[in-house]
């Protein structure tokens, strides 16, 4: 697109959020960068004072989310791209995960983004254009032992977005679900990754996940800047894909999961088709 776009990006201080903000600015666009600590964006604002606004936002506060959208529209007259990026990982077996921890994941990765989508859609429908980018994970298509709560929240976000895509296409609004693998962001960094209370029964299965994720910090194969470029390319394509896996590990894992699903479907097809009434 040649026209200057207005982006609203959550979790913009680091990782994918920061990389997407920088890519949008490099494309000549305007960015409303939302974060719990907007002062961490001072350098970005100083570098682009006429095209960056930093706003304080906890996406789990639905009223604040609606306010952030309203302010962006008040300042710039429109929001062209919403990027729901804010998030946090949680390691723990399902039995180890408390109801509070599970709800916190859903508030952050599902209810918060849903509130922002509802807030931005009236403006995008009125414009007759727009894009909603949902930062999911390869764990939004499958899951792994030790990250069930995180994956469940991303599965929920993807399920909502598949329906959303069908509902808003007629208004000129595109949707993009991004499914990254392991990228060199702060996701697994010290203090960033939440840990459920450990049970000895799961030490052999979940213990390696607890150790390996933090140990991978700074050594992940994925480049956030390249991810951001891929996202912009997908948004600028003649036909934006519904889902965009990013990283060799994500592509390999998703393809393997799809192959297992196809094999199960073929093995059990006769049984699956035998359950209708005879008439």
Describe the structure.
InterPro entries: NAD(P)-bd_dom_sf, Sc_DH/Rdtase_CS, SDR_fam, SDR_oxidoreductase. It holds the Pfam family adh_short. Belongs to the short-chain dehydrogenases/reductases (SDR) family. A 7-stranded parallel β-sheet has the order 3-2-1-4-6-7-9, sandwiched between helices. A two-stranded parallel sheet has the order 5-8. With 279 residues, it is of the alpha/beta class. The longest helix is centred in the middle third of the chain and has 29 residues, at 99-127. The chain contains 9 helices and 9 strands.
List keywords for this structure.
seven-stranded parallel beta sheet, 48% helix, NAD(P)-bd_dom_sf, SDR family NAD(P)-dependent oxidoreductase, 279 residues, alpha/beta, 15% strand, Sc_DH/Rdtase_CS, SDR_fam, oxidoreductase, Rossmann fold, two-stranded parallel sheet, globular
What does the overall shape look like?
Answer: globular
The top level CATH class name: Alpha Beta
| CATH 2nd-level architecture | 3-Layer(aba) Sandwich
Helix content: 40-55%
Major β-sheet annotation: 7 strands, parallel
Q: What is the CATH superfamily classification?
A: NAD(P)-binding Rossmann-like Domain
Order of helices and strands: EHEHEHEEHEHEEHHEHH
- Report the span from N to C terminus: 54 Å
* Low-pLDDT stretches: none
Taking all residues together, what is the mean pLDDT? Answer: 95
In terms of DSSP E residues, the strand content is 15-25%
Helix/strand class: alpha/beta
The count of helical stretches stands at: 9
Seen as an oligomer or otherwise, the chain set is single chain
| CATH fold description | Rossmann fold
Widest sheet, order of strands: 3-2-1-4-6-7-9
């Amino acid at each position: 697109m040649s026209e200057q776009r207005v982006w609203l990006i959550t979790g913009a201080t680091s990782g994918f959020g920061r990389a997407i903000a920088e890519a949008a600015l490099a494309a000549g666009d305007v960015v409303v960068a939302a974060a719990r600590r907007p002062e961490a964006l001072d350098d970005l604002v100083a570098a682009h004072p006429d095209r960056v606004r930093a706003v304080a936002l906890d996406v789990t506060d639905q009223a604040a989310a609606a306010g952030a959208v309203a302010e962006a529209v008040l300042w710039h007259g429109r929001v062209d791209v919403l990027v729901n990026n804010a998030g946090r990982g949680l390691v723990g077996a399902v039995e180890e995960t408390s109801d509070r921890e599970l709800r916190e994941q859903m508030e952050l990765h599902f209810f918060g983004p849903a509130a922002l989508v509802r807030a931005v859609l009236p403006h995008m429908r009125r414009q007759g254009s727009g894009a909603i980018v949902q930062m999911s994970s390869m764990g939004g298509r499958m899951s792994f032992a030790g990250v069930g709560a995180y994956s469940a929240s991303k599965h929920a976000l993807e399920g909502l977005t598949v329906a959303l895509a069908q509902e808003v296409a007629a208004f000129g609004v595109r949707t993009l679900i991004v499914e990254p693998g392991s990228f060199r962001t702060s996701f697994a960094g010290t203090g960033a990754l939440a840990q459920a209370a450990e049970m000895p029964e799961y030490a052999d299965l979940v213990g390696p996940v607890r150790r390996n994720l933090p140990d991978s910090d700074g050594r992940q194969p994925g480049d956030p800047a390249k991810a951001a470029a891929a996202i912009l390319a997908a948004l600028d394509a003649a036909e934006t894909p519904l889902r965009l896996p990013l990283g060799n590990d994500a592509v390999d894992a998703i393809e393997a999961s799809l192959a297992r699903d196809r094999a199960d479907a073929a093995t059990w097809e006769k049984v699956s088709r035998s359950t209708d009434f005879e008439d």
